Amino acid sequence: MKTPKATLEVRLPWEISADEIAAILAGSHSNPFAVLGVHKSGDGYVARCFIPGAEEVTAMALDGSAIGELSRQHPDGFFAGQVSVTKLQPVRYRARRGDAEWAVTDPYSFGPVLGPMDDYYVREGSHLRLFDKMGAHWIKHEGAQGIHFAVWAPNAQRVSVVGDFNGWDGRRHVMRFRSGAGIWEIFAPDVPTDVAYKFEIRGHDGVLLPLKADPFARRSELRPKTASVAASELLQEWDDEAHLKHWSETDKRRQPISIYEVHAGSWQRRDDGTFLSWDELASRLIPYCVDMGFTHIEFLPITEHPYDPSWGYQTTGLYAPTARFGEPEGFARFVNGCHKVGIGVILDWVPAHFPTDEHGLGWFDGTALYEHEDPRKGFHPDWNTAIYNFGRTEVISYLVNNALYWAEKFHLDGLRVDAVASMLYLDYSRKHGEWIPNEYGGNENLEAVRFLQNMNTRIYAEHPGVMTIAEESTSWPKVSQPVHEGGLGFGFKWNMGFMHDTLSYMSREPIHRKHHHNELTFGLLYAYSENFVLPLSHDEVVHGKGSLIAKMPGDDWQKFANLRAYYAFMWGYPGKKLLFMGQEFAQWAEWSEAKSLDWNLLQYRMHEGMRRLVRDLNLTYRSKPALHARDCEGDGFEWLIADDHENSVFAWIRKAPGEKPVAVICNLTPVYRENYTVRLPFEGRWREILNTDADIYGGSGKGNGGRVQAVNAGGNIAASITLPPLATIMLEPEN
Questions:
Q1: Helices (DSSP H) in 441-482: which residue ranges?
Q2: Would you tell me the crossing angle of helices 116-124 and 393-409 to the nearest 10 degrees?
Q3: How far apart are the C-alpha atoms of 59 and 687, rounded to whole Å?
């Protein structure tokens, strides 16, 4: 009896196994680029595609000519067949179902966009143009127009881009994995700009994660929506060559810098309570700052964030200007408008931590990717947020590239880096046992130090006109010294000691101030240890602290007089200036991000007087080099009176080479003092260039009639001066 021969399965060139088809349909195939698209088979070529809902499919070249009919291999929409082409090339399909017909350009028939040099620079951590490679970019590739998507997720089993263009179906645009760099990419032809998208990620254990927003997204949806938006390349005709040239060629330490700190969502609002657009802000805020004499606007973070009461400090989109105020182009127009009138724009920048919203960076590919896995290093106890892993090359590159991105694309003049102290110390806000020492057993976060040095080195090398400012509240040495001298490399540091000591002093009843005289003199012992910015920031007028005017002692007249004297003390003190919005007109209420400032107060004499004073302080500070040219150098300051505890009087000289000096004299009690002797460096007439007790500012109008006479008596040059109550005056020699 003959044994029957086994039947051999004959597979056509384009056919693949049922298991592979099932994996494609389930979105679990490890490499769909090896199956879908155009492939060489023997002497010819085959094409395979997955088009849900299609019953018939014709393959076409990009020029529209038919190159083959594909047969349906699975009723869910898997098609395959031979195509008449002579090389691997992109193809387009004409799909039909009943009377419906539509075209689909095959993303799997295109080659990669990124190249081996991108992989190399990413691995090395030296790629300085990641923002042009990662995220979503509208490009022309191999004859077709579309969006190129790229995302770093090295431990993912599969990554797809999903959005309005594919019905949020993770099986449609499974991305190509570049194992050398841990990056997934795909070119999605025919996808237009302005579409919403996210990444669908299957972790290394096969578990599907919550949809993730794009870490490099340059635009996002308006909260409460959280998707990224495929933005077109930023188009802005910049008119700021003179502005950029000035700041790139000058020593910023010797320039007048007076910063108006602004929360864009609550400076002003429309009558119905909604946010102003960037263009509306430009039409109101820029002229206001020009009139007030501020040199810079510093915005609390305007990067995308889901929660309004975080004020932007819990950002989920470091590369995207928030949608609250319109499209990114609006912000670019705002910056350009500022530069045209000589105002710089500084952005509060937050590399210290990030929120754990499920669409954000937390456990991005199913592992602790951007953060540390160990909560003793990767979790911030103060803000319930995650901490970046500063020891990871790709994370450092992500952040450094972000700093460069804002400077290049939006021409920003500076970055104020938030919460630097929390980055520098491993035990910040942690008890014993809740932190891990560094390799030397210390509490210094050496990885964060290297990151900050790297960031500052890169940004000053690429954009010398930009300045970086550290909010650092400890005595960490050399924060604003060059990296090559062992410093962190910042341009400036906030002087938190000045803010703390002076507010402590000014909040005391004048009768007690003589016992705390050193609170105003102590700061000069370290005033030149760093390049300082003197901040009266938003932090001082929130969380129950009240406004600055409310901190002042006495009745209403004394409160205003105290605050006027304090502002002039600060503007005469060495260091750059920063004042939070609303404090320039002495808003009574504590600041709230949920509503506009109380602009109606300007109808009242005392509030309008305060605004005029801040305006005149700025103009005086800017026009008198003695008040700004040696802000960061000890030879620009000399005490005239530092030890008059009993009268709470302080006096000093500000000076600069080749410039008239300015004498600053403060009487910080309500006692009106006549014939008070003040030593001065030159004899002759000195002109009173500012008096905070002037009637125009809401004061009592006491003063020196505009001039004082300094005389030489036995080799001592001095003037007999009238000191108004709770007031600061400034004098300069007439000749």
A1: 446-462
A2: 110
A3: 87
Could you tell me the strand order of the sheet in which 228-229 lies? 158-163, 196-202, 228-229
Q: Extract the tokens encoding 422.
A: 């929390």
417: helix, coil or strand? strand
Looking at 14-23, 142-151, 153-162, 181-190, which range is the least confident one? Answer: 14-23
Reply yes or no on whether the pLDDT at 452 is more than 90.
yes
| 62-113 pLDDT per residue, tens | 988 999 999 999 999 999 999 998 888 999 999 999 999 999 999 999 999 9
Which residues are designated catalytic? 418, 471
Residues in the chain: 735
686, β-bridge pairs: 708, 733
CA gyration radius for the chain?
A: 32
Encoded tokens for 222 = 């308006």
Asked whether the beta carbons of 626 and 654 are under 8 A apart, the reply is yes
**Cα–Cα distance, 316 to 306 (Å, whole number):** 7
- H or E stretch covering 613: helix 605-623
Query: Alpha carbon of 440 to those of 422, 436, 437, 444: distances in Å?
Result: 19, 11, 7, 9
* Contact by Cβ (8 Å): 714, 657: no
Q: How far separated are the first and last CA of the chain, in Å rounded?
A: 129
Q: What is the 3-state secondary structure (H, E, C) of 229-291?
A: ECCCCCCCCCCCHHHHHHHHHCCHHHCCCEEEEECCCCCCECCCCCECCHHHHHHHHHHHHHH
Give Cα separations from 562 to 59, 502, 511, 583, 670 (angstroms).
Answer: 80, 12, 13, 13, 9
Residue 108: both structure tokens together: 């799997």
* The pair of three-digit structure tokens given for residue 233, joined into one six-digit string: 């390349």
The secondary structure of residue 388, as a DSSP letter, is B
How far apart CA 77 and CA 480 sit, in angstroms, is: 62
Could you read off the pLDDT of 535-570 as tens digits, one per residue?
A: 999 999 998 899 999 999 999 999 999 999 999 999
